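Hey team,

Filing this mostly as a record. A colleague (T.K.) asked me to run one chain through the structure pipeline before their review meeting, and I want the input and output archived in the tracker in case anyone asks later how it was produced. No errors, nothing strange. Just documentation.

Input sequence:
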Amino acid sequence: MAEPDTIRVLLVDDHQVVRRGLRTFLEVQDDIEVVGEASDGDEGVAAAEELRPDVILMDVKMPGTDGIEALRRLREAGSRARVLIVTSFTEQRTVVPALRAGAAGYVYKDVDPEALAGAIRSVHAGHVLLQPEVAGALLSQEEANGGQGRGNTLTEREREVLALIADGRSNREIARALVLSEKTVKTHVSNILMKLDLADRTQAALWAVRHGIGD
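Output structure:
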């Protein structure tokens, strides 16, 4: 049984050797527990529903249901797991669609083991992990869709909430910082996403950074 502050991780990759390598390293981390494995997107979605992991390490290219489709299904199912894409450098062009589908960031398959553990801890804490070139691609697409003008529709309170989202705060932390109920914060977050025509908190954080909201 994991300790309350242990990060529960699900591994989703069609290569058993990759899953074994990830598990071998992660199991020596005091604050990380691998709670399950899956070999494709369908298994990953089912395992996420059953195991309720905190973080999912997800390959992009898998037979059958790939990582991007699995991300969409997880989001539709209301999964609260943070998904960290594990990809090869040559698959970088697939990262932007994955992020738009709800991923919290990505790492390359040759990532240093300690950096991988740090990435898991970071996305679990609510942060977004992006390389500059990918962030630029996302922001260019968002700006091309008229994102900046939509920012004028935000209320002052919504801008405060958005700044805290960009800082990686959870709804509970935002509620505490602004002396609001979590329900009220959820309403503000929903309004922000609707007004800015964004899909999720990852895109909201990027929008905030691009437009100078927050630190």
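Quick notes for T.K.: The longest strand covers residues 32-38. The mean pLDDT is 83.
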